[in-house]
Amino acid sequence: MDVMTAVFLSDGVVLIDPLQLKGKKVFVMLACTFRYGRQDMDVMGVVFRRDIYLMTRQVYPPLQDRLKLGPDAYPFFFEFPDNLPCSVTLHPGPSDVGKKCAVEFEVKAFCAENQTDICKESSVSLSVRKIQYAPMSQAPPPSAKSTFEFLLSDNPLHLKLDLDKETYYHGEPIRASVEITNSSGRNIKDISVSIEQVTNIVLYSNDKYVKSVAKEETSDCVPAGTVLRKEYLMHPLLNQERRGLALDGKLKHQDTNLASSSIVKDEVLKEVQGILVSYRAVMESDTGGGEGEMGVEGDRKCGK
């Protein structure tokens, strides 16, 4: 768990049978992996994965003698570095059977002569998640302004978009306030406000994907020389049919949410690999001679 000021330890216990070891040692490994293809191709030698982080610790010989699980149980722990991303999965489409693009974490215990000699028959693994909790923020709500000037019009069009706060939690509606001061000679119509998810895949290159997760389309209009002030309420939701949406990493048989915003410390931003997620609010309007658009970014951060 990442709470920004610290990353909690990941600890556990591995239970062994000393008679089966035959002089071998027991290790545990924490792996952060980026997957970007079919998992069943691994057996054919085509690997669609890259290890972002690996840490291996030896747990046998014993570190502690008395545990609830008996004398053959041995504790371990891992420290997560600051530059690891959180667990994120890109939602596959109906035709993407077996394909996967995700940042995953796995803890593996195995017995071997050394920590590089891993035999699948002598190992056991467990999927874990790295999640992040947003700190309480006293920052002012996001706000943006934009001005458009048109040919044959002496006065400009002023647009303003405000969110009611900086941090939103899963299932919470987002309230956007729109103010349009139309001093131009054009009639503004078909105003829409949307929440967009911006996903950056940082690996060999930076790929960006933008998906709308909530949109309010209206027939509201602002005639020339008038002002519109109005609030729009949106509910960002996971669309199971929408390919490419970033979701919080999940374990088997558990539901999940839209991915939380990635909060990365400035000093490690250049080191982070994997999938980074952010959100922005966008207002669009038909200006008669083309589209006028403005945007403001606001975070949805994971909360308890």
List the helices and strands and how they pair.
Blueprint: E1 10-15, H1 18-21, E2 25-38, E3 49-60, E4 73-78, E5 88-90, E6 99-112, E7 123-128, E8 143-148, E9 157-163, E10 167-168, E11 174-182, E12 189-202, E13 206-217, E14 227-234, E15 246-248, E16 274-286, E17 291-297, E18 299-300
Parallel strand pairs: 10-18
Antiparallel strand pairs: 1-4, 2-3, 2-6, 5-6, 5-15, 6-7, 8-9, 9-11, 11-14, 12-13, 12-16, 16-17
Offer a few descriptive terms.
4-stranded antiparallel beta sheet, Immunoglobulin-like, 2 domains, disordered C terminus, 18 strands, 6-stranded antiparallel beta sheet
Task: Explain what you see.
- The chain has two domains: 10-128, Sandwich (Immunoglobulin-like), CATH 2.60.40.840; 143-300, Immunoglobulin-like (Sandwich), CATH 2.60.40.
- A hairpin with a 4-residue loop joins strand 16 (274-286) and strand 17.
- The chain has one helix spanning 18-21; strands spanning 10-15, 25-38, 49-60, 73-78, 88-90, 99-112, 123-128, 143-148, 157-163, 167-168, 174-182, 189-202, 206-217, 227-234, 246-248, 274-286, 291-297, 299-300.
- The chain has 304 residues and is mainly beta.
- The protein is built from one helix and 18 strands.
